Amino acid sequence: MMKRIKEDDRMTKITMKEIAEFAGVGKSTVSRYFNGGYVKEETRLRIEAVCREYHYQPNSVAKTLKARHSYQIGVITPSIDSRTSARVLTALDEQLRLSGYTPLLINTNHNEIRELSSLESFSRMNVEGIILLATQITPEHERILHKLRLPVIVLAQEMANVVTITLNDYEAGREVGQRIGQTHHQAVCLLGVSETDKAVGITRKQGILDGLQETGVSSIDFLETDFSFETSRQVVREYLKTHRPDCLICATDNLAMAAFKELHSAGLRIPQDVSLVGFGGYDVSEVLTPALTTVRFDYELEGRTAAELILELIAGNPVESVKIGYTMIEGESVIER
């Protein structure tokens, strides 16, 4: 809703903040308008109405803004070929470009040293903010992030005194654990990852364990792997030589697909012999036979939210951390015992 302009207000020089206030929009929206970025038609008309009231020339404002802004956001990702990263980055890129910003991407290939050096490199470049897709937060990460004088958003990992966007890993894990316990599984194996990834290796794992224990499951094995398909296949292959679980819970869909392959190779039927569960909700999970029971996270929402929040921080607006929800996808890979 556009604020009514008092006659006295027209006698003083208007600021961009006041244009935003009178037009009933955010300061970042006015910034996008003057810089030629995407703004809804209705919003554009309101901004132009305020400018006409004050005889403001958008071109002169744009020159000032361009001198002060690079309209570039530094984005650091551990990979560009994983299904989750691709979905987050695609949504992030589209949302930033709608707002007139360009993402500058660095792929660290899961190299911690490269990730830390990338943070410092971006701090010396003419970027307006940094978005970090994190697999872990070490004391060195905390040291560098806390000394940055730029707006920062951290995805996938929680961190004090920094705006974060995380998945609801604990509740998702707990619901899966309860689902398996309620279907009377008793010999459960959890295929997970190292605790260096706190979100998946600690929080999601603890949720699964709590859900299992709440529903009476006491026999729980844990296998540690990395996020790769081949390593996970090898880990499951060795385990199946000496163990016969009635359910395999996998920390990601990629790990579940590795387990799927090895269970078939061992002559075990899914779900008649072994139930199988994943996390992620990858499209490929639906074409497995039987279809995988999994947890779907909205990675596109995570990417769009990251873009929106970094722009709010750049505009100087208060921002709170966000937790992304999930949906349980009932496939055909879990059976009641």
UniProtKB/TrEMBL annotation:
SMART domains (UniProt xref): HTH_LACI (SM00354)
| Name by which UniProt lists this protein | LacI family transcriptional regulator
One MF annotation (Gene Ontology) recorded for this entry: transcription cis-regulatory region binding
* Pfam hit, one: Peripla_BP_3
Q: Domain HTH lacI-type, which positions?
A: 14-67
Q: Which UniProt keywords apply?
A: DNA-binding, Transcription, Transcription regulation
Which SUPFAM superfamilies is this protein grouped with? Answer: lambda repressor-like DNA-binding domains, Periplasmic binding protein-like I
